[in-house]
Amino acid sequence: MDIDLILQNMLNPPVLFFFLGMLAVFFKSELSIPQPLPKLFSLYLLIAIGLHGGYELSKSGFDWYIFKALMLAVFMSILVPIYSFFILKRKIDTYNAIAIAATFGSISAVTFITGMTYLQTIGVEYGGFMVAAMTLMESPAIVIGLVFAALFATDAKNAENGEKTDWKEILREAFLNPSVFLLVGALIIGILTGQKGWTSMEPLFGALFKGFLAFFLLDMGLVAARKIHELKKVGFFLIAFAIIMPVVNASVAAGLGFFFELSKGDAFLLALLSASASYIAVPAAMRLSVPQANPGIYLPLSLAVTFPFNISLGIPLYYFIINSLWG
Predict the structure, then answer these.
(1) Of 35, 156, 261, 314, which residue is 20 to 30 A from 66 by alpha carbon distance?
(2) How many independent structural domains does the chain possess?
(3) Does 284 reside within a domain?
(4) Distance between CA 322 and CA 254 in Å, rounded?
(5) Could you tell me if residue 124 is inside a domain?
(6) Does 30 map to a domain?
């Protein structure tokens, strides 16, 4: 395991701004992000991720191999939040189980970027279309989470009133959720406009991406630190979940990648995406759509436990798993 590479990954500026936000709260600084700027940052990041993914997909084109890899990515983003929810539901309340499951079913862009840097450093090739896989893996977990939230809330309410569940309304709310709608819409726009469209938008949604991400993570650090004491209430189970589940998810994805004959680099990125947890799309969606969930639980788990674990130990561990399978 390369310690220098680990340190280089940990010293990523947006990541450091997250910890700066936490330190501001711990040291009782009056630092804050004025509202409604955090919502603007969320919208920007969703558009940027969608546009870039659509552009990469239009550039790569479609063939059986790319279709296979993208479908595996979508499958993992559906599978992970489903089995995660039913594991979590045994220990915590429904809404927090939904938010955590969606968080771990979605992905971390910075973790993905760090993984690409790792592959470049060790000289392993990967497909540019995997950026599109990252984009496609954002939405399904959010949709699954919103369907679970609507379904369980509706079932509880209808059980009292003797009414039936309105599946049409549930699906409408899930697929027209602002975060999902914007992300998928930006992906389609990126595909339709291709190289010309991305070149015109790149100065804003490419060059400035890390700057906006730094602002977003600074705000997330402030929010997470203000709520981090909530982790004391949930105990060891969720801390263990946030470390063990990424390894399980990566192992499942690696096995599927091996079975469906993905290249070593593409399988590694699929495993890393499956192991990561969202701190952009899902927190934005959960804040708006599942306010009953406590950000002081799912944000610290993603940012203070899973993210550092993936950056420091997860990336080399997942590559070791991939390398063991591929030889």
Answers:
(1) 314
(2) 1
(3) yes
(4) 6
(5) yes
(6) no
Residue-range definition of the domain harbouring residue 269 = 3-9+45-326
pTM of the model: 0.76
Can you read off the two tokens belonging to residue 236? 């060891």
Q: What is the DSSP secondary structure assignment for residue 293, as one 8-state letter?
A: S
**Could you give the C-alpha distances from 34 to 28, 29, 219, in angstroms and in order?**
17, 15, 10
Q: Is position 36 within any domain?
A: no
What CATH number has the domain bearing residue 261? 1.20.1530
Question: pLDDT tens digits for the chain (327 residues)?
Answer: 556 655 655 677 877 887 898 899 989 898 988 888 888 888 888 888 888 888 888 887 778 999 999 999 999 999 999 999 999 998 888 888 999 999 999 888 778 877 887 887 788 888 878 888 887 887 788 888 888 887 775 544 444 455 555 556 656 666 676 777 887 888 899 989 988 999 999 999 988 888 888 888 788 788 777 877 766 766 788 999 999 999 999 999 999 999 999 999 999 999 999 999 987 667 767 776 777 787 778 877 887 789 888 877 898 899 989 989 987
